[in-house]
Amino acid sequence: ASRNHPIRATLFPGDGIGPEIANSVKQVFNTNEVPIEWEEHYVGDKVDPRTESFLTWESLEAVRKNGVGLKGPMATPIGKGHRSLNLTLRKELGLYANVRPCYSLEGYKTRYDDVNLVTIRENTEGEYSGLEHQVVRGVVESLKVITRQASLRVAEYAFYYAKAHGRQRVSAIHKANIMRKTDGLFLKTVPSFFLCCREVAEKYPEINYEEVIIDNCCMMTVHPIFYGSSPDLGKTHCNIGEGGIALAEAVHGSAPDIAGKNLANPTALLLSGVMMLRHLKLHDKADQIHNAIIKTIAEGRYRTADLGGSSTTSEFTKAICDHL
Ligand code: NAD
Questions:
Q1: Cα–Cα distance list, 182 to 96, 131, 208, 212, 272 (Å)
Q2: How much is the pLDDT for 108?
Q3: CA-CA distance, 213 to 222, in Å (whole number)?
Q4: 15 or 223, greater pLDDT
Q5: Which value, to the nearest 10 degrees, does the dihedral of the CA atoms of residues 276, 282, 283, 288 take?
Q6: Which atom of ligand 1 is found nearest the CA of 258?
């Protein structure tokens, strides 16, 4: 990629504060001369029958074609007859691995200052299978489906990620003590998540592999929600889909209470953009932007209200650009 041959990436600014923080990303990327050309898509105001949602088929196609995208928060309109926007993206683009880095920001004091953890969560089955039904009145059932194919796929991605990012250890997080078949440890005849992880681990002898029960993992990481959905620990994530599609997004919502007021903190979407750049192997650009964000927050002169400051989105963004 170069200025003359930029990489096309799909941008969903999203709703609420989305357009404001997306502007901040565009400004910072521009200042740092990142060779990316954005193809912007907005959520529509009527259901596209081809996707059964407010996202058009064309916008999904744009992600497939470009292979890479950045997504702001989307507010799913309340009403019947359409799918959740995030679910549409996940299903239509086959986004199977949800990658959530979580690390301490230098210069911004929190309870632990040496956090450096990446959660990779299988996103298409297990509790997310979406297979629920009523057995009889008053009794409902939700199916947790685990397949060998999806387990191997996410395990392969986890080890690939570890190797590509110079990390030394992969831990398989499970509840096999209770869910013996799905998370499975004991019956070798079924295609359990565990056996798949072990199978992949054998191909990566240079990476330490361990198995940790989810309860213990929670104790160690203070994860508040079942199986790795902890928006307050990691504010940014990237979804990896079939054929290597990467869709990075901020974890937070559209913050309707502060939308349009120039008050939003663009850090999460900016760091999502940084993840996208790393996926594209634009490591220098990613490092420069990452460092400029860290420096701005650490200095403390320009912080948005959520971090205890009084700067606007534009002032905070300008401070980052000045560091570049
Ligand atoms: P929210 O994250 O939008 O807001 C929670 C609180 O955090 C609010 O007080 C808000 O002002 C604040 N906040 C969030 N992001 C901020 C930022 N970048 N800077 C400063 N303050 C910020 O959560 P919610 O209120 O539960 O949801 C609002 C809407 O967002 C809903 O329509 C929901 O469906 C949608 N949502 C979308 C996503 C997504 O697209 N990934 C995720 C969560 C919620």
A1: 17, 15, 23, 15, 32
A2: 64
A3: 14
A4: 15
A5: -90
A6: 11
